[in-house]
């Protein structure tokens, strides 16, 4: 708990960045939805553009997490953050592209997994903020 208390700001930034990056991808799809092949192509390009724009920022956060917890064993949140970063770098945008093509199942699975990790991180950080119970 002490490690996470000391690094609470980093955890909160990672949590917020994950939510923001996911929203940016979802917004790219929402703003470019439409019928027909041209609309689908535009939506795919928009998703890929956002994904490309996010790559460097997500890698910076990945490096920051690795620097904060090099072995990945000082906080229970580290693997959850790592998974969400990996989803955002690869599976989430790919699943959105799949959704544009009519395949809903992958994005539903990825969203569910990300929601689960986000909830676990949030619950742990809430515990850290409350401090030890007397």
Mean pLDDT: 92
What is the string of helix and strand elements? Answer: HHHHH
Could you list the spans in which at least 5 consecutive residues all have pLDDT below 50? Answer: none
Strand content: under 5%
* Number of helical stretches of at least 4 residues: 5
Output the structural class: mainly alpha
How far apart are the first and last residues' alpha carbons, in Å? 15 Å
Total number of β-strand segments? 0
Number of individual domains: 1
Helical fraction: over 70%
| Largest sheet composition | none
Describe the structure concisely for a colleague.
With 134 residues, the chain is an all-alpha fold. The protein is 82% helix and 0% strand.
Account of the protein in words:
With 134 residues, the chain is mainly α. It has one domain. The protein is built from five helices and no strands. It is elongated, with a radius of gyration of 17 Å.
Record keyword descriptors for this entry.
134 residues; mainly alpha; single chain
Write the layout of secondary structure elements.
Blueprint: H1 2-6, H2 8-31, H3 37-68, H4 78-100, H5 105-130
Helix pairs in contact: 2-3, 2-4, 2-5, 3-4, 4-5
């Amino acid at each position: 708990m002490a490690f996470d208390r000391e690094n609470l700001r980093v955890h909160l930034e990672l949590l917020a960045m994950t939510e923001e990056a996911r929203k940016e991808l979802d917004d790219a799809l929402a703003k470019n939805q439409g019928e027909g092949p041209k609309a689908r192509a535009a939506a795919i390009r928009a998703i890929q553009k956002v994904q490309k724009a996010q790559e460097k920022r997500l890698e910076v956060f990945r490096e920051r997490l690795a620097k904060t917890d090099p072995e990945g064993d000082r906080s229970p949140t580290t693997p959850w953050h790592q998974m969400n970063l990996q989803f955002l770098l690869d599976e989430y945008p790919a699943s959105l592209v799949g959704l544009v093509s009519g395949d809903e199942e992958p994005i539903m699975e990825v969203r569910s997994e990300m929601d689960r990790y986000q909830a676990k991180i949030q619950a742990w950080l809430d515990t850290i903020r409350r401090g030890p119970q007397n």
